Amino acid sequence: MNTALYLDTARMGTMCPAAQEACQAYFGLAASEGCSPCFETFLREGFDAWPASLRNRFGGLSAWPGLSRFDHYVGTATGLREMPKVLLAGRTANLMRLAARLLFRSCRRVLTTDLEWPGYLGTLENERARLNRSLIQVPLRAMILADRCSPQDAVRFILRTFGVEGCDGLFLSAVTYQGFRLPVRDIASAVVYASPPPVIVIDGAQAFGHCSPGPLLDQCDFFLTGAHKWLQAASPMGLGLCPHPRSKELIQRILADMIAAGELDDPLLTFSQQCKTDVTEAFGETVSLVPLFPCAGAIAALLREEGGPGGRFQRLLERAGQLESAAEGTSWQPVTPHEGFRSGMLLLKADCAETKRLSPTAVRQRFQEHGVALSAYGEGMIRLSAPPDGLSTEDLARLQAALINCA
Fold first, then answer.
1. In DSSP terms, which residues pair with 226 in a beta bridge?
2. Looking at the domain assignment, is residue 286 inside a domain?
3. Dihedral of CA 130/141/8/65: which sign?
4. Buried b (16+ CB within 10 A) or exposed e, 298-323
5. pTM of the predicted model, to two decimals?
6. Is the peptide bond before 196 cis (omega within 30 degrees of 0)?
7. Burial of 217 (0-12, 13-18, 19+ CB in 10 A)
8. What is the pLDDT of residue 147?
9. What's the pLDDT at 8?
10. pLDDT on residue 279
């Protein structure tokens, strides 16, 4: 059955209208201009640098600020007061490799939790082993799932472990892949006064376009996220923000070293860096620029929303509550953590032993047969992402019927 209710934004968001309009306009521009001087002006300086004739023809690209101002544009969307340095990458995984190198080149003992994305934990472990460093993991997942841990408890556990283990680096998710919003700001504020200050990296993949991450970035050295989830730009593109002056130059040096050594091959990352410094290779690789423009359109749409990123987060919280209400009376029980951990994602767990034995793929396919797209994990766990466009009475009735029929 076709998807009638999409609740899988944490995996990949549906493309928002502003991003779709930007994509369509870009394809028209590519068919008309190719890589002409007019296009190069547009790429570097933005839509407003064009003559009126081109602005009228390709109005769907009006959100594009140009590579020269894109850093400021992204910083505005995250709520940062100061303009960050922004790295653009074709793959977020490449930015994670850079983050791991930053952490273990600067730190001997890095603290994280068992709530982080497994792929990113694997990247950290590979770099830790390569440099013979230590990775300390705080076990929080079981306690949060059982509602035996408040945000204040999490802060205490992490800070106590950080001190006892002599850690000098942190890797934490602003919002975990299962939807728990971690008290990252409180943790970072408590450790930043250590001497020397620890290196702090935040995984914001589930935060950008979901909640307002600005306050989280005040003491952060590197914040990595993407454009294709809650921002709803659809085309995958990694964004690495360097908000703190103390680490911008170090990150740049590490990046240059990794590229020179052939350890980091990302054409968009290399090209965007060269464009900002006006040092482009005469015979460089042809790069796909498609993700830039839907990203800019989606950011513009986010900034136009009532209350901006903060307003969107409150609406997503309310919609997650509606999803939880729809599960009442079914055999799917909400995994309801402490209020302070909640986000626009909801975890449900099946009571039925047969459902618990099914593979995640089989569970996901069953819901798809009822027109509902969502994420599924092992042991009967599913994740629902609140839709940015709201929920109708029909949507909630469809979800409730699917929950009843898929157990």
1. 238
2. no
3. negative
4. bbbbbeeeeebbeebbebbbebbeeb
5. 0.94
6. yes
7. buried
8. 87
9. 96
10. 57
Structure tokens at 3: 């998807």
Residues 262 and 147 in one domain: yes
The pLDDT of residue 118 is: 96
**Residues 249, 167 share a domain:** yes
Could you tell me if residue 292 is left (phi over 0), alpha (psi between -120 and 50 degrees) or otherwise beta? alpha
* Same-domain check for residues 74 and 184: yes
In a domain, 191, yes or no: yes
In angstroms, the CA 236 to CA 214 distance is 22
Structure tokens at 320: 């997650």
247-284 burial, b if ≥16 CB within 10 A, otherwise e? beebbeebbeebbeeeebebebbbbbbebbeeeeeeee
CATH number at residue 338: 3.90.1150.10
In a domain, 61, yes or no: no
Q: What residue ranges of the chain have pLDDT lower than 70?
A: 81, 276-284
DSSP 330-341: SSEEEE---GGG
Whether 102 and 201 map to the same domain: the answer is yes
Range of the domain at 383: 5-13+308-405
